[in-house]
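User: Study the shape:
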Amino acid sequence: MTLGKVIAIANQKGGVGKTTTAVNLAAGLSQRNRKVLLIDFDPQGDSGKALGLKPSESKQSIANLMLEMIVSDACNYDSKIQKTKEGFDLIPANEKLSSIEVTLGSLEDKETVLRDVLEPLKTRYDFLLIDCKPSLGMLTVNALTAADSVIIPSQPEYLSANGTYELLKRIQKVKEDSNPALYVEGILITMTDDRTVLSNTVQKQIQEQYGKQYHVFPYSVPRRIAIAESSALGKSILSYKPRSDGAEVYQQLGREVDRNAQRETGKHRDTLSR
């Protein structure tokens, strides 16, 4: 049986297009007829908000699943998984997740709770996407421990680029401590504005600094009002303005991520047949 691939979308800096990327990658993969689960793993609940979820619809959340796993080693999934109009499923988040992060600090297996929560769901979905909290705390460590790979959205600004550097250090630490198979799927440059010297300069620096060791996606997400409008309306850019350049970038990302997963599945089958 082929298990679903778990991808964390992470950057320790907020405002870099992390949630936008998580939602639109989920939509792009869903349009490719993949079964997708998006896990909102930020206490702010931004993925749910970007999909038009009301606060009352987020009461049953990933925090409940984490607590169930901590207390009883079992989860009631169906009451927490919600269908979206975009064709993929969502486990929402709320402020209770902050309390869970505090609780994790006192546990012996503090890094592996989310991995244990998601493991049974890998037989239901082709992709499980984790929209991480913008920090390097225990929630992010849990996401990285649960993940097969990481996509790092990075805005072409110096503070965002520095956040990418800090996250890459944390990824290396998680590889050493709890998840040796973890790898960087790619760095996605977001909110680009080719009219500004700063944007072009930092894009070039990101490519030069990381391109030899990590995959930098060969396309970038442009800064567009339509992308912000789509989130405000509770839609992906793929359903709001499917012919826009922003939608095209996320369609490209979905194709590449899907093809990567298919290649990895093929390699795994080849290994098993030897």
Remarks:
- The chain has eleven helices and seven strands.
- Residues 269-274 have pLDDT under 50 and may be disordered.
- Residues 5-273 form a domain with the Rossmann fold fold (CATH 3.40.50.300).
- The CA atoms of residues 4 and 126 lie 4 Å apart.
